[in-house]
Amino acid sequence: MASMSHSSIALGGASASASDYLRSSANGVTGVSLRALGRRTMVTATTRSSNNLYVTSRLKKGKKFDHPWPANPDPNVKGGVLSYLSEFKPLGNAQKPVTLDFERPLVELEKKIVDVRKMAEETGLDFTEQIITLETKYRQALKDLYTHLTPIQRVNIARHPNRPTFLDHIHNITDKFMELHGDRAGYDDPAIVTGIGTIDGKRYMFIGHQKGRNTKENIMRNFGMPTPHGYRKALRMMYYADHHGFPIVTFIDTPGAYADLKSEEKGQGEAIANNLRTMFGLKVPILSIVIGEGGSGGALAIGCANKMLMLENAVFYVASPEACAAILWQTSKAAPEAAEKLRITSKELVNLNVADGIIPEPLGGAHADPSWTSQQIKIAINENMNEFGKMSGEELLKHRMAKYRKIGVFIEGEPVEPEKKINMKRRDAVASTSRNLEGEVEKLREQILKAKEASPESEVELSSEVLNEMIEKLKSDIDEEYTKAAKAMGLEERLAATREEFSKANAEEHLMHPVLIERIEKLKEEFNARLSEAPNYESVKAKLDMLKDFSRAKAASEAASVKKEINKRFQEAVERPEVREKVEAVKAEVASSGASSFEELSDELKEKVLKTKREVEAEMAVVLKSMGLELEAVKPNLKEVVAESPNENIQEKLEKLNREINEKIEEVVRTPEIKSMVELLKVETAKASRMPDQGSQKIEALEMQIKQKIADALSMSGLQEKQEELEKELAAARELAGEESDESVKDDDDEDGSGSGRSEIINPSFA
Prior knowledge:
Elements: E1 9-11, H1 18-22, H2 34-37, E2 46-48, E3 53-55, H3 104-123, H4 128-146, H5 151-158, H6 166-173, E4 176-180, E5 192-199, E6 202-209, H7 215-220, H8 228-244, E7 248-254, H9 261-265, H10 268-279, E8 286-295, H11 296-300, E9 307-311, E10 315-317, H12 321-328, H13 335-342, H14 346-351, E11 357-359, H15 370-388, H16 393-405, H17 426-454, H18 457-488, H19 492-507, H20 514-530, H21 537-574, H22 577-593, H23 603-626, H24 638-644, H25 650-669, H26 672-690, H27 696-715, H28 719-731
Parallel strand pairs: 6-7, 7-8, 8-9, 8-10, 9-11
Antiparallel strand pairs: 1-3, 2-3, 4-5, 5-6
Helix pairs in contact: 3-4, 5-13, 6-15, 8-10, 12-13, 17-18, 18-21, 19-20, 21-23, 22-23, 25-27, 25-28, 26-27
């Protein structure tokens, strides 16, 4: 390949010094300057002659470097022209909205507002009042929700995918910012970002965890989990800031340090420990701000500051709620309870002196208004740095040491209150109690079986006593289980607030507000729907089944006892001489008449039979009244009538109609209108029990309204016609003394003697 004469550097003989070869052509050495070489295209060729050795070189052609800034950059761009070098670029597309589980009611309201506005645009009608009402309701719901957040809900907000990151806040609060890279050991961890920036003309060293705004960025940033190289980069910048006197501001937002094998091999623990030791010796102010979640040592490695501030919905913990729940309860479903026990929210940490202040967030979280949140952070930085600016280096060190020395209180030599004692074997005690309860249940079941076989009176009474005791134990245990489940689901605060409102409304004279009734119903539905997610669901289910079985057994036992007592007293009443003589005399007259049916008797004898029947019914009424019961009417046993009827399908029709009636009643009772009326009736009944002279008219009016509503619903369902048809079929089979019964078609009593157990409202008559 031919050489270019002006691009070669002639090397002299072997006696030439190295400095001669580095001189430029301006000093008289053959060749061209290095600056000129850089602008020429060169080729490589070697030729050998007898006197001189010539060496030439050629630069390799490559693609022209594509600079990250535009051709004509704006010199006044925020952060300077070099900000174009930053990897943190504005997102091309807006982030997709993400709705958390507890925010779904708000989304429904938003959808309603959008639908009404769309309807107004399409129809041209004026829906201004409806839109204003919905917007007011939405704002109130948003305020109620975000002012009563549970710890696990704050954790979810702190982890929100659209929550502003460290660099989002930096670009909002700084006048200029220059990112600094590298740990000077060959690595640059993108999970920790460092740089120098100015706020109102004052220079600061900013260090913070950086999460991604989308999946691609999260992978690049390792989801905000630093490796040892990131902590060593932060350490280098701390030394730099300490040397030049720059205050340090750190932003914490990490689930924890990256805990893979390679990070451990590179010295993850040593890097964190070195940062902790160094930060306690820096003589410049250090301010830490938790903007998201601060997990374990990964957060503490840049968090040993003179003050630590937290955003309102940020969390700071030694272990995540999910990890804590998995360790203590062997299931991550107990994370809500773990979040409450860990006390990781900003308010709780300020009370514990771990955090020193709370930076407010807008309703809806920081992602609802990132710019406003950043300005609140800027205000907090300026206020605290003005305070630190009055301290010397030694005073800052003492201030930092005092902050951590005051965390935690130790009391020695004083007795501990019983309620504050911690039972280290509580789980064993709970398991033992559960086993004891199961043993008592099995023992009681055996007693019930024996009582059913032998059924002596003494054993039945003993079983009733034991049943009552066992039911009370089960109710107490179920209440505790429900409390645990509510805590695990994060519903404890809402449940307590609703209970307090209910008690307050119950204590006052006025009726309960329908909004409160609706809120109670929604809370019940949410609790029942989410109960299966609770870690103690299986225990709750088993105890509820046991309670149901024993309640049925108790009801059956009580019904049998009442029935036996009624029969005993009725027999005593009938065996009285005057009654017995009348009955025997009527029987003798009927027998001597030779009639085979009631219709064949003479009118006089019929009147005697009916009169005797009424006297017996009167005796029965007296017996029932003495037991606190009331006799409404004496009605025939339709099952016996059906059994004697030649029509074999009547029994099946009777049962089918009874099922349809019960299903319809259940459907009506579940409607919001009837529910609210029943709740009002309960409240009025409770008030009347305290003040018997008041409220009786309201109770009667409510009862009549409820019965009328149910009767109207049943009459409109077509069941009345079915009943009338069935009564016509039964009329031919009735061979009863007296007038025909207008009995509504229903079961005489349940097989277990406990009643329907489905509703507190009596089935109304169709008549």
